[in-house]
Design a protein that fits this description.
By secondary structure, the protein is of the alpha/beta class. It has helices at about 60-75, 90-100, 115-120, 135-140, 145-150, 175-180, 190-200, 230-235, 240-245, 260-275, 290-295, 310-315, 350-360, 365-375, 395-405, 420-435, 440-455; strands spanning about 35-40, 45-55, 80-85, 110-115, 165-170, 170-175, 205, 220-225, 300-305, 320-325, 335-345, 380, 410. Strands 1, 2, 3, 4, 5, 11, 12 and 13 form an 8-stranded mixed β-sheet that branches. Strands 7-8-9-6-10 form a 5-stranded mixed β-sheet.
């Protein structure tokens, strides 16, 4: 029996091995890598489980983690359970999972993310944790969790199809040197205040501020804000603007856009005022995602919604100083777009009880915290003190991660829908923000597209 002495509502601190050079951002932003299999060894008479997951960190770190988990479950079960791990590249993962769940021998325990949960909820391939867990364990799995994460893992009859344990989001990072150069203006607390703050951080190569006479817009040393028009990046922050103004990107019925309202239009207009302010990095400045993600740490912009920098990124900028701005919001409050990682059990596992025991083992604080720190993620429940206590490869990583932990209480997942509208909607929103389409025309086009998608789902 595991000891939940930390309490159900808060994750206790655990001093565990820190993996230097972790390359992943968080569970939903993992990098790609080669498939890799490891095993804890199967002794005669033991139950052998297949454990599938994706590479959210370096190959070396993933190998160390899966080996430790296989050894751990073997020891904790008295040799009765062994686990063979398969790390599947992200680009192949959904196809591999689909084939595995369709066959006669599905993977017993798997790592899941919300977009996949939207698929599995309807197919019956995942087991209901309620069939195996005690009341105490169920309370531990669900208490204090963001409701949106639980909603994504809940079946139509209330089944608990997966248990959330790690989350990732992109906090608002600030280049401290640029902020100091600007005279340390008050940090923004709202999306509207971010516009003036970005303007205060924008300087040309002669040291003139954006609002100074003679500012040279053709020779800007650094802009106040980086806002990439790359949809896969914007997907990590656009939706929180709607939430902050009391709107959403899809309506409550799920069959049309949700932002054709005064509140939704206000959210779009504040985004437009920001990108038109002259204080944002012009589109086309950087050639790829990585350069955009490093705009603030490189000194080309004063702030941006950004992934936590890895050891490799900090090495590129040894003098850079970053801080995390407390989460700004709108009139309706504060939220941060977040992704979530889960552990799940196959409904057709040949050894469901053993699979549950392994999932239960993975969800205990020592193992869960070990994984979260390895991928530079955050726990899904509130923490006391600094989650990243043990030194990471660069002390600036500890500072950034610990300052970002405060965002976790505002985490909100994207909507649970039978279709995925985000990429389409971001394309339409970008037509308004960057490509000159009038707001009313964009809203009309977006509505027509979503009604078509919803009707076909």
């Amino acid at each position: 029996m595991f000891d939940h002495t930390h309490g159900a509502a808060q994750m206790s601190r655990r001093r565990v091995l820190q993996i230097g050079g972790a390359a992943g951002l968080a569970a939903f932003l993992g990098s790609c890598g080669l498939g890799e299999s490891s095993s804890g060894g199967s002794s005669s008479g033991s139950t052998s489980l297949d454990f599938w997951l994706t590479p959210n960190s370096s190959p070396e770190a993933m190998k160390a983690f899966t080996t430790e988990m296989a050894t751990g479950i073997k020891e904790s079960s008295g040799g009765e359970i062994s686990a063979a791990s398969l790390v599947i590249p992200w680009e192949n993962a959904l196809t591999k999972y689909t084939a595995g769940f369709s066959g006669n021998n599905p993977p017993d325990v798997t790592y899941q993310i919300i977009p996949w949960m939207n698929k599995w909820r309807e197919t019956g391939v995942l087991a209901d944790f309620r069939e195996f867990a005690s009341d105490e364990d169920l309370e531990y799995y669900t208490s204090g969790q963001p409701q949106s994460y639980l909603d994504a893992a809940t079946g139509e009859n209330g089944e608990l199809l997966a248990v959330p344990f790690t989350q990732g989001f992109q906090p608002l990072g600030l280049n401290a040197a640029i902020w100091e150069k600007a005279g340390q203006p008050p940090l923004p607390t709202t999306f509207e205040e971010m516009i003036g703050f970005a303007e205060a951080l924008t300087f040309d190569t002669s040291g003139r501020n954006l609002k100074d006479p003679g500012f040279d817009a053709e020779n800007v040393e650094h802009w106040g804000m980086a806002w990439s028009s790359i949809p896969t990046q914007e997907d990590n922050w656009v939706w929180q603007y709607f939430w902050g103004y009391g709107s959403d990107y899809i309506n409550e019925a799920g069959d049309d856009i949700g932002f054709d309202t005064a509140e939704g239009r206000e959210a779009l207009e504040v985004m437009k005022r920001l990108v038109d302010s002259g204080a944002t990095v012009p589109q086309g400045t950087f050639a790829d995602d990585a350069r955009w993600s490093q705009s603030t740490i490189s000194g080309k912009s004063g702030m941006q919604w950004m992934p936590p920098p890895s050891e490799e990124v900090f090495k590129q900028y040894p003098d850079a100083r970053l801080t995390v701005v407390p989460l700004p919001g709108g009139p309706a409050g504060r939220n941060i777009v977040a992704g979530c990682g889960y552990w799940a059990i196959a409904a057709e596992s040949e050894n469901p009880e053993a699979a549950y025991e392994f999932a239960r083992f993975l969800l205990q604080p020592a193992q869960a915290d070990r994984y979260i720190r390895m991928i530079l993620g955050q726990p899904t429940r509130p923490v006391e003190g600094n989650f990243y206590e043990e030194p990471l490869a660069d002390p600036r990583m500890n500072t950034f991660q610990n300052e970002a932990t405060e965002y976790g209480q505002y985490a909100r997942a994207t909507l649970v829908l039978p279709y995925q509208p985000q990429e389409f909607l971001i394309g339409k929103i970008n037509d308004y923000l960057f490509n000159g389409q009038p707001l009313d025309a964009m809203i009309t086009d977006a509505s027509a597209g979503i009604r078509q998608m919803a009707g076909a789902a």
